[in-house]
Amino acid sequence: MRAPFIAGNWKMNTTVDEAAQLVKEMRERLDDIVGVEKVLCPPFISLTTVAGLIQGTSIRLGAQNLYSEEKGAYTGEISPLMLRNLCQFVIIGHSERRQYFAETDKMVSKKVQAASKASLKPILCVGERLEEREAGKTGEVVTRQVKLALVGVDAVQGLVIAYEPVWAIGTGRAATGEGANATIGLIRHTIAELYGEATAQSTPVLYGGSVTSTNIVDFIAQPEIDGALVGGASLKASEFLSIVEQTAKVKR
After folding, report:
1. pLDDT tens-place string over residues 2-27
2. In the chain, at which end, N or C, are there fewer CB atoms within 10 A of the end residue's CB?
3. What is the chain's alpha carbon radius of gyration, rounded to the nearest angstrom?
4. From the CB of residue 232, how many other CB atoms can be counted at a distance below 10 Å?
């Protein structure tokens, strides 16, 4: 059985002090919720602080990005070696990285390989743009993104995939539970083609895109959806706690 999985992507929000306060507001209740993998993904500058605050709890830590090289003249980048002793997970291929920083499927693949080599667990993001959805290309796009991201990659230990339709991220316009479930089923089928059915059935696949405490059940009640990658709602302690608590209840 796949454990339910909820990750909070704080994006470019919170100072170090604000990040610490947010963790303190929800740490105790979040730690008490059993049966759900709980991951916080603050900005790079807050990783050390958050790591210290959640030490000894059931809460895990993730980074929002990494660079594909271990070291070198890459001003402003963060290597997997810098992250490996700080966190367990790393978000790779988020649509905002693809859109604003021109990340290609090839670059995403290199990052997946780098993360795996450093024993970091990738949260690989895939998803279609609005025009691709309206053209009926959702399946084609997400299948291509998954396959190209994993080119030359052996079965990745701890791989998590997040289906995040670009048109739903930060827009307040979420997909339907049934629609997301169908696409995630296709993603799982693609993983089975690449690595076999056992790996496909053990790989958590999440939904992301305007997830809130009021719609989370619509998604996690679906058989193929294992949890969520939560954006804006993860910046509010009460919202994020409600999302995790509802997930635990539904997936119990």
Report:
1. 999 999 999 999 999 999 999 999 99
2. N
3. 17
4. 18
In terms of phi and psi (left: phi > 0; alpha: psi -120 to 50; beta: otherwise), the region of 128 is beta
Q: Which of 37, 103, 164, 245 is catalytic?
A: 164
- Does the annotation count 94 as an active-site position? yes
Assessment of whether the complete model's pTM goes beyond 0.85: yes
CATH of the domain at 232: 3.20.20.70
Q: How far apart are CA 163 and CA 141, in angstroms?
A: 11
Question: What domain range is 218 assigned to?
Answer: 5-251
189 is catalytic: no
Mention every residue, 6+ apart, whose C-beta is less than 8 A from residue 149.
Answer: 92, 93, 105, 108, 109, 112, 124, 126
What SS3 class is residue 76? Answer: coil
State the catalytic residue, choosing from 37, 94, 128, 239. Answer: 94
- Contacts of 242 by beta carbon, 8 Å cutoff, 6+ apart: 213, 216
Task: Give the count of domains, the chain.
Answer: 1
- Per-residue pLDDT at 173 exceeds 80: no
